[in-house]
Amino acid sequence: MDNDVSAGSVSSTVVGRLALGVTLLAFGLGTTGVIDGVGTSDAVTVAHYVGGVALFLVGLLALRDSTASGAGYVALGALWFTWAVSDPGSANAAGLFLLLFALVALTLTVAGGDTLGQVTHGLLFLAMLVLAVAAFADSSALTKAGGWLAALSGAVAWYAATAALAHWPTALPRRAAGRGVTATG
Question: 3-state class of 21 per DSSP?
């Protein structure tokens, strides 16, 4: 563990990733329609309390330690809460909201952090962008694709949190440049 990282920020990162992962898995799998009788609307309660309230509170705690993840969790928590309690009104309004959600995820992607965090936010960006285009174009095929991207993003977030707790690998081992080359040091 890095000496600059306090125990509070590590635990809030794990809890934040778990909350984001569970929310994205529920939302993504609901959006794909892969489970019979489960739709996007079934993810509203999870998005409201886990993705909205819990993620927002975890973000506030992480901000106490001046971590960048705190700002990200606060923003994502506010967006999930808003999504859960609002009525989009029209497909274009829903598309605009999803596009704004995508822009926040893009900001979190380019802000840096560890690899799994960037992959999670990058996939979230792609998911929300595809879902925004799907809403504008009224495309069920794009909606399913966006749902799968959201579920994949959730799986990465869940893995990142679980890996931190279980001491699983979080990076792929690197090979030397050529055959017979060994690293020194």
Answer: helix
**Of 81, 126, 123, nearest to 99 (Cα)?**
126
Mean predicted lDDT score pLDDT of the chain: 87
Name the residue type at position 143. T
> Residue 181: pLDDT band by 50, 70, 90 thresholds?
low
Q: What would the 3-class secondary structure string for 118-144 be?
A: HHHHHHHHHHHHHHHHHHHHCCHHHHH
Both tokens of 34, joined, read: 């892969």
CB atoms within 10 A of CB 99: 16
For residue 73, what are its two tokens? 């969790």
Residue 134 to residue 28: CA distance in whole angstroms: 14
Count the helix, strand and coil residues of the chain and give each as a percent rounded to the nearest 5: 75, 0, 25
pLDDT at residue 119, rounded to an integer: 95
